[in-house]
Amino acid sequence: MVIHAHKNGNESNDGLQQRFKRQVQRTGLLKMLRKRSKHTKNANKRIIRNSALKREEYRSKNRKQQFYSNM
Hints:
The chain has 3 helices and no strands. The chain is mainly α.
């Protein structure tokens, strides 16, 4: 995907730079490249379940601390 930004009339360099930056963000190009740059393994059911249990444990602990601040 090619993105072009040419100076419009009396536009400053900063304005041109901002317009180009907006164009790049709208395309989602950087998000896609960052996602592609790292190889991730597919999580199996056991790993997903263990992480969910751990997450619930942390959340319940935080809920207790929220109501009982001296714990």
